[in-house]
Amino acid sequence: xxxxxxxxxxxxxxxxxxxxxxxxxxxxxxxxxxxxxxxxxxxxxxxxxxxxxxxxxxxxxxxxxxxxxxxxxxxxxxxxxxxxxxxxxxxxxxxxxxxxxxxxxxxxxxxxxxxxxxxxxxxxxxxxxxxxxxxxxxxxxxxxxxxxxxxxxxxxxx
Length: 158
What we know:
- This protein is α/β, with parallel strands linked by helices.
- The protein has one domain: 5'-nuclease (Rossmann fold), CATH 3.40.50.
- About 50% of the residues lie in helices and about 15% in strands.
- The longest helix is centred in the first third of the chain and has 15 residues.
- The mean pLDDT is about 95.
């Protein structure tokens, strides 16, 4: 059986240490164990690494150590992803100030991911973004991509 190809945005890695939101942290840790067990094909991007590098210590080192635990493919932002992310803005799916969020989604689409996982409900995991991404991806010939929280993938209540 073919594995789901999932893109992880930075919020997922960050929630591996999130004692202020224990339910999200627990679900993220469950997901991480599934990833380490090889259940999913994981894609990370240079945007994720850039965001991690901007984190303060000790969070940055913690997140980099967690990334090192898993097998993942590195996707690099390129002109195709930049153009696609701009279309998400034009469609009204994401606010213009959330450039990196649009890039996460576009890189996932260009990388043929089945889904993007995020804890960012404000800009990514919401109906407005999902509708715009679906419309743009259909118009531009990309496969549909599901936008979910880790809890949603695991069958939780989010």
